[in-house]
């Protein structure tokens, strides 16, 4: 599990429930079952989707020495069979209902969750509850799943980010439970017995320590009785008293230097801070936002943009129970490490010397509010926030408290918590460097850390209290839908620009996607990577506005805008609060019609892209896919790394990007889609006003024909340092406009998911891998259908043979009706869940219109999928999976 996915501030990834009117009928309701289980229900009929989540107050920090890794192992085992549902059946049943089921383990709790079509919510609830309440932990299944977890451990050991993160946690927290790997170690996992698991579950899986959250398109009076029945068998005893020990670590600064075979260096500076329920967490959250969130943050503006010492940088305040970390994380060229980390310490101390200005505070507050609004688009996002606040913050009602407390933080409070906690004795510095790169010793770190803190303290003492900032810009709350029918409307302007507007008034948000033909299909080996560089530079200056000015305007409105480039198209995405839609459209027009591509910004973007190329060399999976593409695609542009190469990147300059943009600018052949809380008539009029005078035609790329593979291709890349072997098998497949595309998508569903063939056989039964998945990528002109696995020592031969067995079966035998039904429901359920957000809707309509399919084509997806018969799947498999057309790449042992 990646660090940022569970260590980032949960509240900033949640919805702003408090924005809704207090009298709203569908506000969350708390229920308490007789056995102490807390149930929260919130009806939301904006989409035909229901999210159900079960949180258990038991995380890896609750483990004793002989239990290390048991919480995570239970999470893996919970879906491996009950008295009424054998192993593998739960996932198949959920996916047959159009749902998705999964789980995760953190330091302080475990979550099990399902998301499904609303008409199947009751059945999905029964399956999820059966797993949590009645899991059997069969000994044979346990033995197999231990091997899967060991493969997950090896996967983590191959990932430089995860290695560095665990080194930080161990150094910062020492022998405290937070310093141990959540997943455990290979030895500790292998030592866990079934009785250990039963004892642990009996101890912690009790009603008063459990929260069930349901959000979505249901009626509470119908769903609540089913929840009570499903969880009735949970014991009513209170959980044992549990308290974390104090962190027993040597006063800092603490230094860890990881000398590894990496091309891209990393610096992580983290200070111990208080966790929940300390009142200081609000000011610490604000400090992290000011220092390292967004392009207007201090670390980005100074350490990255002005001084060029890092390629990427962020800051977060992680505040679980009792203890936390204030963490600066940066990636950079190895030669700059000795300059970057001292400067990062100085900028952190600058929170004392230069407390946040009024504009910084106001920007942070309005962006927090907008983040809550955006997360309200999905049922899972809403359920996640309710569950988190209920379990970790004293009740879901405290969402509003968090917003209020965050808004009340002033500059002096930020300076105060920085002075108290960002001290040298709380600091841990982790440097991940190749051999030969400069690194400090303990004495040098102590000297510089003390100096940076003393200088900041002296500067802070020389100035008085900071004036109170103005109130943050208010953000309008959701309002009921108006009389609009919500249907998308299309108009083609006289200059050829196609405009699609779909009103949606459930939330005060507007999403925009503008796209043109182009992308990787237009590249040659000489300019490989140019479209990714173009996308990065598109918003770095326009209409005479500098990158910094444009970033300040956008972040001041809690808005976002960025370029993108795919295989056969590229363009802009933008997100605005509804109150700013007109200003947002004006900025979109400026950026697209009048980009400046300043030479200095192009140079910075090139350095970032070069850093990304270096980082790929440190990631086994990325290296494997970079080698796989030319093996499959031959001389086609899709064979090249989308980032290009060091040689091609060196050739690119401002003029090259201007030429790329001229080929794509249009507006003829360009599609602009707007989805959200807008009036279609007003929006169409504004688009005509802002884009109507532009002239030109976007050029459609004409790459060479797809390669005709007549002989299987194989390649092995040896890596004796790898913990796993990466395996990729692939075939040229039907493209995005091919009538066989629905059959290929259904093939992917038959093979994929936890109830699919690959997971059930190669992971569940044979324990060959933690990660095994099919992938179907459809672009213009040609697609790819592939299979990926990462396996440990001695397993590659069996894994390849197993994949080929499944491939041969696909081309020899049609799937059975039951399997077809599961796959159809799984595919269409994921399709509906994926379209909950306004941006997903805008991107889908834009892509289909650009491909020539029409902006309403996606609405026919259910009809096409349901019409597929087993014979259609067999024919598609025979067309694609011919042995002589296979490309096989292995990288590792």
Structure description:
43% of the residues lie in helices and 18% in strands. The strands form five sheets. It has a six-stranded mixed β-sheet, sandwiched between helices. The protein is built from 32 helices and 24 strands. Helix 10 packs across helix 16 (411-421) and helix 26 (741-751) packs across helix 29 (817-834). A hairpin with a 4-residue loop joins strand 4 and strand 5. It is of the alpha+beta class.
Helix segment tally: 32
Any idea what the shape is? globular
Q: End-to-end span in angstroms? A: 24 Å
Output the radius of gyration: 27 Å
- The total beta strand count reads 24
Low-confidence segments, given as residue ranges, are: 1-24, 469-485
> Which strand order spans the largest sheet, edge to edge or round the barrel?
1-2-6-3-5-4
Main sheet, how many strands, which sense, barrel?
A: 6 strands, mixed
Q: SS-based structural class?
A: alpha+beta
Give the strand content.
15-25%
What percent of residues adopt helix (DSSP H or I)? 40-55%
How would you state the average pLDDT, rounded?
A: 92
């Amino acid at each position: 599990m990646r660090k940022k996915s569970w260590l980032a501030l949960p509240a900033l990834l949640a919805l702003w429930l408090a924005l809704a009117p207090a009298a709203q009928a569908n506000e969350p309701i708390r229920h308490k079952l007789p056995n102490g289980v807390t149930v929260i229900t919130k009806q939301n009929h904006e989409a035909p989707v229901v999210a159900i989540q079960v949180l258990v107050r038991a995380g890896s920090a609750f483990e004793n020495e002989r239990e290390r890794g048991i919480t995570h192992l239970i999470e893996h085992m919970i879906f491996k069979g009950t008295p009424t549902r054998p192993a593998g059946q739960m996932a198949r049943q959920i996916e047959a209902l159009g749902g998705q089921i999964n789980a995760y383990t953190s330091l302080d709790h475990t979550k099990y969750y399902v998301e499904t079509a609303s008409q199947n919510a009751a059945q999905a609830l029964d399956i999820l509850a059966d797993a949590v309440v009645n899991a059997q932990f069969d000994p044979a299944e346990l033995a197999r799943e231990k091997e899967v977890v060991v493969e997950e451990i090896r996967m983590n050991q191959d990932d430089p980010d995860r290695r560095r993160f665990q080194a930080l946690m161990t150094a910062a927290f020492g022998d405290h439970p937070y310093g141990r790997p959540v997943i455990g170690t290979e030895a500790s996992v292998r030592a866990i017995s079934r009785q250990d698991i039963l004892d642990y579950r009996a101890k912690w899986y009790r009603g008063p320590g459990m929260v069930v959250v349901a959000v979505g398109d249901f009626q509470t009076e119908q769903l609540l009785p089913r929840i009570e029945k499903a969880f009735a068998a949970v014991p009513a005893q209170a959980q044992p008293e549990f308290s974390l020990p104090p962190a027993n670590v040597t006063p800092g600064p603490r230094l860890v230097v990881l000398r590894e075979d990496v091309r891209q260096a990393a610096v992580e500076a983290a200070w111990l801070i208080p966790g929940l329920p300390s009142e200081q967490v609000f000011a610490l959250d604000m400090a992290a936002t000011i220092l390292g969130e967004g392009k207007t943050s201090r670390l980005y503006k100074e350490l990255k943009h002005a001084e060029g010492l890092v390629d990427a940088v962020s800051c977060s305040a992680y505040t679980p129970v009792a203890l936390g970390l204030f963490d600066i994380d940066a990636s950079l060229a190895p030669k700059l490490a000795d300059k970057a980390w001292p400067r990062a310490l100085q900028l952190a101390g600058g929170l004392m010397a230069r407390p946040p200005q009024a504009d910084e505070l106001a920007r942070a507050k309005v962006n927090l509010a907008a983040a809550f609004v955006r997360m309200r688009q999905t049922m899972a996002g809403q359920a996640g926030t309710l569950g988190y606040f209920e379990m970790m913050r004293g009740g879901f009602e405290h969402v509003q408290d968090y917003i209020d407390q965050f808004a009340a933080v002033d500059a002096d409070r930020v300076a105060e918590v920085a002075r108290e906690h960002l001290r040298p004795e709380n600091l841990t510095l982790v440097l991940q460097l190749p051999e030969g790169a400069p690194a400090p010793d303990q004495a040098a770190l102590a000297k510089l850390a003390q100096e940076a803190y003393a200088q900041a303290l002296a500067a802070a003492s020389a100035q008085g209290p900071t004036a109170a900032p103005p109130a943050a810009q208010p953000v309008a709350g959701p309002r009921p839908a108006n009389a609009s029918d919500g249907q998308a409307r299309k108009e083609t302007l006289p200059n050829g620009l196609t405009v699609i507007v779909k009103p949606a008034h459930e939330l005060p948000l507007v999403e925009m996607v503008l796209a043109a033909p182009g992308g990787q299909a237009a590249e040659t080996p000489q300019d490989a990577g140019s479209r990714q560089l173009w996308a990065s530079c598109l918003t770095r200056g326009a209409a005479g506005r500098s990158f910094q000015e444009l970033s300040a305007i956008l972040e001041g409105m809690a808005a976002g805008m960025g370029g993108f480039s795919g295989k056969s198209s590229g363009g802009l995405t933008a997100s605005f609060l509804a109150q700013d839609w007109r200003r947002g459209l004006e900025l979109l027009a400026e950026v697209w019609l009048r980009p400046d591509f300043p030479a200095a910004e192009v140079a910075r973007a090139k350095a970032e892209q070069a850093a990304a190329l270096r980082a790929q060399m440190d990631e086994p999976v990325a290296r494997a896919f970079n080698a796989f593409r030319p093996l499959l695609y031959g001389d086609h542009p899709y064979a090249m790394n989308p980032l290009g190469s060091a040689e091609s990147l060196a050739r690119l300059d401002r003029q090259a990007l201007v030429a790329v943009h001229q080929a794509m600018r249009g507006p003829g052949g360009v599609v602009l889609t707007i989805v959200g809380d807008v009036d279609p008539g007003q929006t169409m009029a504004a688009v005509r006003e802002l884009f109507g005078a532009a002239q030109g035609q976007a050029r459609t790329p004409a790459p060479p024909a797809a390669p005709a593979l007549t002989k299987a291709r194989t390649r092995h890349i040896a890596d004796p340092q790898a913990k796993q072997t990466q395996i990729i098998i692939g075939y040229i497949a039907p493209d995005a406009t091919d009538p066989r595309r629905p059959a290929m998508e259904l093939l992917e569903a038959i093979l994929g998911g936890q109830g699919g063939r690959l997971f059930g056989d190669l992971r569940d039964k044979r324990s060959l891998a933690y990660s095994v998945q099919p992938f179907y990528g459809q672009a213009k002109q040609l697609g790819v259908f592939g299979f990926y696995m990462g396996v440990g020592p001695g397993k590659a031969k069996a894994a390849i043979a197993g994949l080929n067995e499944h491939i041969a079966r696909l081309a020899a035998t049609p799937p059975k009706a039951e399997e077809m039904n599961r796959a159809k429901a799984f595919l269409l359920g994921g399709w509906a869940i994926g379209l909950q957000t306004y941006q997903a809707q805008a991107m889908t309509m834009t892509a289909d219109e650009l491909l020539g399919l029409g902006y309403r084509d996606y609405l026919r997806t259910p009809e096409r999928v349901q019409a597929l018969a087993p014979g259609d799947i067999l024919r598609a498999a025979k067309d694609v999976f011919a042995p002589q057309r296979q490309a096989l790449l292995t990288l590792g042992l």
